[in-house]
Amino acid sequence: MSPVAQKQFSALPFIPDSHSLATLRKAARDCEGCPLFERATQTVFGEGAAHAAILFVGEQPGDQEDISGKPFVGPAGKLLDKCLEAAGIERKQTYVTNMVKHFKWEPRGKRRIHEKPNQMEISACKPWLQREIETVQPKLIVALGATAAQGLLGSSFRVTKQRGAVMQIEGYPPILATVHPSSLLRQITEEDRERETARFIADLKKCAEFIAS
After folding, report:
1. Which of 54, 77, 94, 160 has minimal Cβ neighbours within 10 Å of its Cβ?
2. CA-to-CA distance for 32 and 30, rounded, in angstroms?
């Protein structure tokens, strides 16, 4: 087995003993907890209200997020904004972040194409998310997509079967899983996009109802 395979990757050595988002964000810039930092432009830390009622967790930053250093600013992020508005949720009152803080990609011509993070990369980066949750103390966590849902709820969780239900997991605030907005953009027909977008907005309305209760 190679030395790389034997190494235990983790962000823990880079995380300060702090519950200040500003301090955590600054420390995350220097994180080398897994190999993904080597190809990414920069760390993309979470962003939003310091004590948001809803904390959204996606998979990882995309190409535009990697360049800007801000989460959910690409096409999926813009669609999320529209759906939040339709559900009566203000984006500025939420906190948005990802399971993995560096963009994982593969070249395709001149483009950088998203590549799904593996379990080692997710586990290595998870301490950052846990500290974000401890710091923000949301009333509800919303897992966007399978990677985020399984990272929080276990590998057996299936968004296709269990989306929209509020789950109680020890050590976390209540969690609701739904699809990632990028999946709406991948729908082939306009009819499919409209149907799946309506379902996603319905899930977000459940979130609004939960935090209002």
Report:
1. 160
2. 6
SS3 content of the chain, % helix, strand, coil (to 5): 45, 15, 40
pLDDT at 8: 86
Using one digit for the tens of pLDDT, what is the confidence trace for 28-37?
Answer: 999 999 999 9
Return the H-helix or E-strand segment holding 113.
strand 111-114
Q: Return the sign of the alpha-carbon dihedral for residues 30, 59, 150, 51.
A: positive
Separation CA 89–CA 212 (nearest Å): 11
Question: What domains appear along the chain, each with residue ranges and CATH number?
Answer: 3-212 (3.40.470.10)
pTM above 0.90, yes or no: yes
For 150, residues 6+ apart whose C-beta sits below 8 A from its C-beta are 156, 157
